């Protein structure tokens, strides 16, 4: 009896998959992005400004209420979206952003972090200007292959160890952040 019920449920799922027009959620609820004004970007801009300035300007409030502030900016985007268009379009837009874009990005970062966290680069490297420039060049090229997170995880320890005896070494880390962690990944969609 259970096998027959499972077989029937599997057949229904297979038919719904093969014929999406028969599925209940087959109706498209896409937002007309080409006709939307730039005002819809205002909540995102506010969120970015809050993240950038919140910890600096109002540290105590940000420390305890950053989730509520983020929720405020999200609601400022989603509620007008549901009112201006319809609830189905707003729900689909939110689910699309969370499930297909955000989760895939987090999974990619987790995979790169896990893989590169297990790679140890060891050696007797001395931090001369030529060696530092070479490591930064290798890191920038490596970031285009394995992503900025992976390249940063692999090369930050060797560059810190190579420059630990230099009295002025903060600039090397700043160049590392710009070249390897940011600019290096510009040649690939991983970056």
What does this structure look like?
- By secondary structure, this protein is mostly helical.
- It has a domain of 86 residues.
- It has 7 helices and no strands.
- Helix 3 packs across helix 4 and helix 6 runs antiparallel to helix 7.
- The radius of gyration is 24 Å and the shape is extended.
- The chain starts with a helix and ends in a 12-residue tail after the last helix.
What key attributes describe this structure?
70% helix; extended; mainly alpha; single chain; 7 helices; 191 residues
Write the layout of secondary structure elements.
Layout: H1 2-18, H2 42-57, H3 59-84, H4 87-117, H5 129-146, H6 148-162, H7 170-179
Helix pairs in contact: 2-3, 3-4, 4-6, 5-6, 5-7, 6-7
Helix/sheet category:
mainly alpha
DSSP strand tally: 0
Q: What are the low-pLDDT stretches, counting only 5+ consecutive residues below 50? A: none
Number of helices: 7
Helices and strands, in order, run as HHHHHHH
| Largest sheet entry | none
Calculate Rg over CA atoms: 24 Å
Helix content percent band: 55-70%
> How does the overall form come out from the CA principal axes?
extended
State which percent range the strand residues make up.
Answer: under 5%
First and last CA, distance: 52 Å
What is the residue-averaged pLDDT?
82
């Amino acid at each position: 009896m259970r096998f027959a019920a499972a077989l029937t449920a599997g057949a229904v799922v297979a038919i719904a998959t093969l014929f999406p027009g028969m599925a209940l959620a087959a109706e498209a609820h896409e937002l007309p992005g080409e006709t939307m004004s730039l005002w819809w970007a205002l909540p995102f801009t506010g969120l970015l400004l809050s993240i950038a300035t919140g910890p600096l300007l109002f540290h105590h409030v940000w420390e305890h209420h950053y989730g509520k502030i983020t929720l405020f900016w999200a609601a400022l985007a989603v509620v007008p979206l549901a009112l201006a268009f319809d609830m189905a379009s707003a729900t689909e837009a939110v689910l699309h952003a969370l499930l297909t874009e955000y989760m895939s990005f987090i999974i990619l970062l987790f995979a790169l972090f896990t893989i590169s966290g297990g790679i140890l680069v060891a050696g007797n490297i001395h931090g001369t200007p030529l060696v530092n420039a070479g490591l930064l060049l290798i890191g920038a090229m490596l970031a285009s292959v394995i992503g900025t997170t992976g390249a940063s995880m692999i090369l930050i320890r060797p560059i810190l160890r190579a420059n630990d005896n230099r009295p002025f070494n903060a600039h090397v880390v700043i160049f590392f952040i710009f070249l390897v962690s940011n600019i290096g990944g510009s040649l690939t969609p991983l970056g």
